[in-house]
Amino acid sequence: MNPEFRITSVIPHRHPALLVDRLGEVEPGKHLTAYKAVSVAEPAYRGLAQGAAQEYAYPASMMLESWAQAALLLACWERPNPDVRTGQVTLGAGVRDARVLGSVYPGSVLVHEVTLVRDLGDTVVTRGSSSVDGRRVLEVEQLTFALRPAAELESLAEAAVLASP
């Protein structure tokens, strides 16, 4: 299967929450390169005056989320689950030492590099960085994912609803 078409068959994110546009090199279980084109059509720029978006940096939280989706693609490449209601649900368990090193503006293409550090079956640890035109703009020392059975999480959610006033 062509890697570009693989994105939505691996992770559940869809427009407008999907923040990875295409894939480059993919070495399952090792490394992944993904791309995100930042555009004035992004939801983050809605409501700004015509042309004003060019003056506003892409939110750091969106940059990190885009990188995290690339990391999720690598973590789940060999165990895809685009339907979070079944199988294993991947949860972001923690980020350590994420540093924003520069600003990104509309018209830029983020290049996400992700390395799989450790795969323990139900826990996956990744690290990496993002750059624009060869300039590093984000470093992530560690992002940990936890994989849990959807049925288990659903029963916990139902119990929480029943217990609420």
Automatic annotation (TrEMBL):
Pfam families: FabA (PF07977). The keyword Transmembrane does not apply. It is an enzyme of class 4 (lyase). GO terms for molecular function: (3R)-hydroxyacyl-[acyl-carrier-protein] dehydratase activity. It comes from the Bacteria. Its EC number is 4.2.1.59. Keywords: Lyase. Transmembrane segments: none annotated. Coiled coil: none annotated. SUPFAM superfamilies: Thioesterase/thiol ester dehydrase-isomerase. PANTHER family: 3-HYDROXYACYL-[ACYL-CARRIER-PROTEIN] DEHYDRATASE (PTHR30272). Belongs to the thioester dehydratase family. FabZ subfamily. This is 3-hydroxyacyl-[acyl-carrier-protein] dehydratase FabZ. The gene is fabZ_2.
